[in-house]
Each structure stands twice: as structure tokens, then as C-alpha cells.
Amino acid sequence: MSKKKKPVIGVALGSGAARGWAHIGVLNELRNRGIEPAVVCGTSIGAFVGAAYVAGYLEQLHEWVCSLTRRDIIRYMDVQLFAGGFITGASQKKMIREKLGDVKIESLDIPFAAVATNLKTGREVWFQQGSLVDAVHASIALPGLFSPVHIKEQWLVDGGLVNPVPVSVCRALGAEVVIAVNLNSDIVGKHLKEFNFEEEEEEKKLDIGNLSIMSFMDQLKNNLFKDEESFVSRLWTKQQEKPGVLDVLVGSINIMQDRITRSRLAGDPPDLVLSPRISNLALLDFDKAEQAIEEGRACVERMATSLDFILQQ
Predict the structure, then answer these.
(1) How many of the other CB atoms lie within 10 Å of CB of 162?
(2) Which of 63, 214, 236, 305 is deepest in the core (most CB within 10 A)?
(3) Catalytic, out of 15, 147, 158, 168
(4) How many Å apart are CA 273 and CA 266, to the nearest integer?
(5) Is 78 a catalytic residue?
(6) Burial class (CB in 10 A: 0-12, 13-18, 19+), 12
(7) Per residue in 78-129, pLDDT tens?
(8) Contact 167, 176 (CB under 8 A)
(9) Residue 242 has what pLDDT?
(10) What three-state secondary structure class fits 220?
(11) Gap between the Cα atoms of 208 and 215, Å rounded
(12) Cα–Cα dist 132/275, whole Å
């Protein structure tokens, strides 16, 4: 009797900002169980972790993210007003290059694709060739927070806008069995606290009565960004009486990605969905990597029976 051929396994790593460190735990646990994906596709943070995996740097990335502190994260955030986002992304691109090296996607041993969104057309863009660093940089450009990335006459933003869990990309690259990692389940409303509007203090307003346009913009910038560290630090605070800029941005993105993820997975269902329980982690909780990684590992363990079943068919 001839030995049954093993299926081509693809892993679709979803978007989810800091929750994405769970992908490291997922990939490590799959490897511990003898499962080596033959196709890897990622969106946003999933593209970053997936790129590290296919480039052979997952272990180094694991060590680095577990050493991150909040101050380290602040240093990677180069704040600039009116750059298409609060953060230009130059420091992020430098960091990505340090972690992945200057690698061409087509030179990788494992087929890989990163998903971004064309800001003009709204279409998804699959990076299967060219610079791995550029592909990841474009895929993680979260709208409103990070500036869009310009590549080949296209302005690109986070792929989570159109394909948060790229199952379709995995299948297009030849995967016969697709394991999807969805970080967007149970996140809607998790980071928007209850606000008390009855005793809301009067807000401080800019005096624009006698300001020229240029001086008004200067005053606005000074009020927003007295210094980069204090501004980025305020992104984590929860002291205001009503939803702040980040509360609105994150809440809106959570709703959008949850709805898009549900729709895309219903239209093109994977063979198995892994859903790490990390809704308690906020958008910028990159310094809580150990918690996310452990939950990623535990998620695979919980689904071990289902995983064995789909791979033995």
C-alpha cells in the first residue's frame, strides 16, 4: 500500500496589532507538533511574524518582543502631525529591516505573501515579490495611526481593511489545508470604557479668534505634541471623561475588522480556525508579548484534536 501524501499546509496569520505576538506562539507550537507550513500568508502584524518565520528569524523575534518595554515602544514611534497619520513609520521600517534583513520575497524557501490595501482603489494588494521589508511595512500601516506607504506609485495601508485573515491568499498560493489564526474574535467594545457624561468638565479650547491659519496650525501642533514621548504615552492613558482619539480609532477599527473577518471567513472558510483568547490586550500592548505568545501556544493545544483530524484526512 502506498503511503498517503501529506497535504500542502498553509497558515493565514491575521491582523490584530499587539495581539499579533500570539502568532509566534501558534507557529512555535505547530512546529513542536511536527507541522511545518508549506505556505505562509499574513496581514498586518501577521505579515511581520509570518515574514520572520519564512526568513528564519522567528526565534530572534521571539526573544526581542519578550524584552520590549513601553519605553522601547515609544522610541519606535516617530510622531509627526499631518503626515497621513500620527506616526510616520520611518522608525518602524528601520526596525523591520533590522529584524528581517534585506531579503527578496521570491528568494524565500517557503512561499509567502503579505496583504496591503491600495488607498486609492480600495483593492487588496498581495506582495509575492520584491522587498520583504517593504511588503511588511505597507501591510502594517494602520490608517489614522501610521502614515501610508508609497510603493510603485501606490499609496498603501494596512491589509486588515480588506482581508484581515488571508485565507484566500493561502489557497491561491497552493495550500490544500488552511489553518487560519483569527485575532479579531470577541474584540468589539473591549477597550471602550463606560464614560460619565453627567459631570463632564468643560474642555479646554484653542483660542483661534485672532490667529492666522499658520499660527493656528502651530498652536494646534504644540497642544497635540508638546513632546513625542508625552504624546505617545497618552495613547495608553484612560483618564479622559469621554472617548479619546485612540478610543474612537481603535473601537472603529475593531468593529470594522470583526465584521470583515466574519464575512471573509464565511465566504472562504479555512479548514481550521485558531482564535487566541487575547481580547484583553489593547492595540499598543506590544510590551505584553509573553502573555500573547503563551495564549497562541495554548490555543493550538486546545485545538489539537481538530488539528490532528484535518491533517489525517
Answers:
(1) 19
(2) 236
(3) 158
(4) 12
(5) no
(6) buried
(7) 666 555 555 666 777 888 999 898 899 999 999 999 999 999 999 999 999 9
(8) no
(9) 64
(10) helix
(11) 9
(12) 26
∠ CA 276-281-287, rounded to 5°:
110
The cell numbers describing 305, all together, are 484534536
3-class SS at 105? helix
The CA-based angle 19-21-22, given to 5 degrees, is 80
Closest to 181 measured CA to CA, from 281, 50, 312, 54: 50
3-state secondary structure of 121: coil
**What's the whole-number average pLDDT of the chain?**
82
- Could you tell me which residue, 211 or 4, shows the higher pLDDT? 4
pLDDT tens sequence across 227-248: 555 555 555 555 555 666 666 7
Cα distances (angstroms) measured from residue 311 to each of 10, 11, 277: 12, 13, 24
212-248 b/e with 16+ CB inside 10 Å = b? Answer: eeeeeeeeeeeeebeebeebbeebeeeeeeeeeebbe
Question: Per the structure block, which three cell numbers stand in for 205?
Answer: 479650547
pTM of the model: 0.83
**CB of 130 closer than 8 Å to CB of 108:** no
Q: Count Cβ atoms below 10 Å from residue 288 Cβ, excluding itself.
A: 20
> CA–CA separation, 262 vs 276, rounded Å?
16
Tallying the residues shown for the chain, one arrives at: 313
Cell of 20: 499579533
Catalytic residue among 15, 44, 147, 275: 44
